[in-house]
Amino acid sequence: MNMRIAVASEGNAVTGHFGHCTNFNLYDTENGAVVREESVPNPGHRPGFLPNFLADRGVNVIISGGMGGGAVDIFNERNVEVVVGASGDAKEAVLSYLKGELKSTGSVCHEHQHHGDCNG
Q1: What are the Cα distances from residue 106, in Å, to 4, 34, 96?
Q2: How far apart are CA 80 and CA 109, in angstroms?
Q3: What is the C-alpha to C-alpha distance for residues 16 and 29, in angstroms, rounded to an integer?
Q4: Which residues form a coiled coil (predicted)?
């Protein structure tokens, strides 16, 4: 499966807070391997902007150290998987995710009809 994975970063390290990162590292993956990388500067933190900015760029998964509930909700609405609780090297986090080793430590809803059942 081909995916585009974004990592909220400070340079090449996963940032602790999504909205205040310096840049987003974008990784295009095919069959569990990274085939293309690019870094995009954070265009600026304003409510609701960044999740749509990334979704519009074709991102399927966002990896970050932490993220506010508002951003999580927008990513979920845009069918972007949210993985929080990551740290260390951005590319290593992506490779761990591809191997199934990096799982979100946050509560993320994929079932919109059960939205009320989720704990934030």
Answers
A1: 21, 25, 17
A2: 11
A3: 24
A4: none
CATH no. of 3-117: 3.30.420.130
Task: Look at strands 81-84 and 61-64 and give their pairing.
Answer: parallel
* AA identity, residue 44: G
Q: Quick count: other Cβ atoms within 10 Å of Cβ 67?
A: 24
Amino acid at 80: V
d(CA 6, CA 34): 12
Residue length, the chain?
Answer: 120
66 contacts 17 by C-beta, under 8 angstroms:
yes
Show pLDDT as tens, one digit a residue, over the chain (120 residues). Answer: 799 999 999 999 999 989 999 999 999 999 999 999 999 999 997 888 999 999 999 999 999 999 988 999 999 999 999 999 999 999 999 999 999 999 776 644 444 333 343 333
Helix (H, G, I), strand (E, B) or coil at 18: helix
Tokens 């290593």 belong to: 92
Can you read off the two tokens belonging to residue 71? Answer: 């951003």
